Amino acid sequence: MADVRLDKVSKSYGAAEVLKDIDLSIADGEFVVFVGPSGCGKSTLLRIIAGLEDLSGGDLLIGGRRVNDASPKERGIAMVFQSYALYPHRTVRGNMEFGLKLSRMSRAEIDARVMRAARMLQIEPLLERRPSQLSGGQRQRVAIGRAIVREPAVFLFDEPLSNLDAALRVDTRREIADLHRQLKTTMIYVTHDQVEAMTLADKIVVLHDGHVQQMGSPLDLYNAPANVFVAGFIGSPRMNLIAAEAGAERIETGVLGSLPLPEGGVPAGPLTLGIRPENLVLGAAGGAEAQVVLIEHLGDEILVELKLADGQQAVAKIAPGLSLTVGETVTVAPGDGPVHLFDAAGRRIAGPAAKS
Amino acid sequence: MTRLPRPTHGLILLLIIALAVASAFPLVWMVLSSFKTPEESMQTPPVWIPGSLNLSAYGAVSEVIQAGRSLWNSAVIATVTTTGILVTSLMAGFAFAKYRFRGRNALFAVMIATMFLPPIVTLIPLYRMVSAMGFSASLVGVILPNLANAFGIFLMRQFIAGVPDDLIDAARVDGASELRVVFSVVAPAIVPAIAALALFAFVYHWNTYLWPLTVLQGASEDYPIVLSLGRLLSYNRGAMNTPLVMAGATMAVLPPLVLFVFLQRFFVDSMVSAAVKG
Q1: Do B175 and A102 touch (CB under 8 A)?
Q2: With a cut of 0.90, is the ipTM above it?
Q3: Going by CATH, does the domain composed of A4-228 fall within 3.40.50.300?
Q4: What's the rounded Cα separation, in Å, for the pair B121 and B127?
Q5: Residue in B174, B189, B277 nearest the CB of A132
Q6: 3-state class of A342 per DSSP?
Q7: What's the confidence (pLDDT) of residue A289?
Q8: Membrane-spanning residues where (chain B) (predicted)?
């Protein structure tokens, strides 16, 4: 068990700066998810914590100890890889034992730990098989088992579900959540999938361009995105971001009508309005006109892609029942839910404005 | 697997059989001749099958040369050299394949370039170096310069490049040292390539003639079997005793042949498993 602290951590490859002054503090037992688009530096950050990459600047502390120059094994971490990375010539048991044998643990202790982990992951019948004889889901369990037996202070997961099919991904996601509840160990998890991030995390760290864009609980990020990037990244389908202009009394969008200024007001000038798809109302009287471009029936809800008056695209998520056809013109207006405002630089302006 | 049309299939089969017969013929002739009497071996038209299983040539070999000692020397040279090549090739190949360091490509290019030097060019300089170190006329001198070779490093680098980085990182996280990574994780993943290199190296250094001849300087008690065979040829002062030479040659061929049969299953195994895994 250990907390992890990153203090102005940076990483460059030659002239290319991949991570810039990352400050981060992860509490003991916390489940933290690094999320971001590919190339944002999230995997590099995880590999730095693992000790597989050197950091170019700053400090890394695990359990209060500075481990900048410590080898992976000295850091008390275990890692699960996207590709599973099981040793192909060893049995499942051999894979799980490898690290323990290297640390010269007694035979009895090794056997006890392997059995305990195998039971927890329900892979006891597979112990004598080789990785090539296992399915993708089973391999992933073995990879997790190999991490568990080491009883690390921190678990690192690098996109562990990416190679699994959709159904298995949901099951395994739940198992990882269960695992965290049972072990109560600090876990750091990297993914590009915001659904995984939302469902697993105590705390989400959104990375983009080598910077931390925002960190906080899943609902904090969903309800109060710090900037346009986070607003667009968290939530599916993504938030509609519409250009608007703050006037003296109201915010004019041109394409969705006007909205009242939030309490405290906003500086006059251009801004970006963020409205989640579920907060767009179709067919309401007094709404702006928009053309239906695409209709996706999901059963319990309908996603309607709209082309607004000035050509901007927007997506509305509505309840089934409304009959629409592609090409038809409908009225669209913001609902009663929260509306997000971002200034010209893309930063959040405090307090969601509610419609009135 | 795609099935070839029958006539093509048959034609290819015929060709393979012809090639097999052509390459096996000298070997079979050698073994058969080793059992002949000197008279049988001289007759025209040639006698194919010896009249009786005459083992006297094998006995005679040991009267002319120290066959056991020579075979042992060959085994020492080939085994130690092969082991050395495997170890150095794996380590250097790993470094070239997986480490990023300044000058890596230049160093690799220089090393590859040495593969294009005919061995004869380096023979004298190499001998002078070995001799200056005080290893001439000894097995150490025969073995030492061959413990690393460019082809082995090249081959291992190519195969190790195909080993996933995650696998190596997983071993590091598990607490493996770099040496442990090379020998416990990387090596088992490329067993077929290692078996191939081992076979090439063993056969090459079992059969090598010029280098031991140069280094050993007539110290015949250290001669490997191929050098000793030469003494069988010159025995009898020109009147060649064919069964004697063939018996010696058969003894010289046997160990690499056995090794091949043993190592062969690694190639076959690996091809089958690759096909199944897809």
Answers
A1: yes
A2: no
A3: yes
A4: 11
A5: B277
A6: strand
A7: 87
A8: 12-32, 71-94, 106-127, 139-160, 181-206, 244-263
